[in-house]
Amino acid sequence: MLIFFVSEDSGSSQWRLTGFYGAPAIQDRVHSWRLLRQLHDSPLIPWCVIEDFNEILSSHEKQGGLLRNEWQMRNFREALEDCELFDLGYLGNWYTWEWGRTTANNIRERLDRGVANSAWENLFLNYILDHLTNSFSDHCPLLLSTCPNFGQPQQYWHFRFEASWLLESSCEAEVEHLWSSSVGTIPDCLLAVNLGLDRWLVKLKEKRS
């Protein structure tokens, strides 16, 4: 694991970057999530964690091979939630790890990812995370660009959806309601759904507290 403090050229902001490697053995992964929680100091410090977590968030991030145990994925989701880290999304192939070259034994999983807290996302509104093409490794490299269009006024907005929300019984109905009541272009509707889900999540947390 590598931990860096990054200062921008302007000197106006500093953020923390963690290169994380999840334990390859299933029984040891609980220690990885405990370490991640220990690294969670404050939501006010912009924080990005990237690399190989050796785990997936949901069964949709795996193709081929045996089904992943739900408790494994749940432990990973809960660790990210406790650390207030959100998935950064990606460009490129949906998977980052592949094993087997024939249809019968091919397995693909999204084991590598970038996650960050809200403070980091607010600092880099135009970020892009690319899944690059792999050559010799069974993992594809990740390229995180914090200013992909430096000097250009174009802005990017990233739709954020957490896989753990699907476990809530009211999620599907809420998405349907937000989408049907939204107007405008598809990006406008997606923005309305995302903002509505943010409000829905706040209310959900208030009910639990």
Task: Please give a structural write-up.
The chain is α+β, with helices and mostly antiparallel strands. It folds into two domains: 2-158, Endonuclease/exonuclease/phosphatase (Deoxyribonuclease I, Chain A), CATH 3.60.10.10; 168-209. It is 31% helix and 21% strand. The protein is built from five helices and ten strands, in the order ββαββαββββαββαα. The chain has helices at 29-39, 70-82, 118-123, 171-181, 186-208; strands at 2-7, 14-21, 47-52, 62-63, 86-87, 97-99, 107-109, 112-116, 128-131, 142-145. The strands form three sheets. It has a five-stranded mixed beta sheet. α1 (29-39) links the parallel β2 and β3 (47-52). α4 (171-181) runs antiparallel to α5. The protein is globular and about 45 Å long. 19% of the residues are buried. Residues 151-156 have low confidence and may be disordered.
Number of domains: 2
Which class of the largest domain in CATH terms? Answer: Alpha Beta
- Broad shape: globular
Low-pLDDT regions? 151-156
- Total of DSSP H or I helical runs spanning 4+ residues: 5
Can you tell me the CATH superfamily of the largest domain? Endonuclease/exonuclease/phosphatase
Rg over CA atoms, rounded to whole Å, is 18 Å
Strand order of the largest sheet: 1-2-3-8-5
CATH architecture of the largest domain: 4-Layer Sandwich
Average pLDDT level: 85
